[in-house]
Amino acid sequence: MHEMALTENVVEIVCEEARKQGFDRVRIVRLRVGDMAAVEPEALRFCFDAVSRGTAAEGAALEIRRAPGEGRCLDCGEAVPREARFADCPACGGRRVQLTSGDELRVEELEVD
Ligand SMILES: [Zn+2]
Question: How far is the CA of 96 from the centre of ligand 1 (A)?
Answer without folding.
Answer: 8
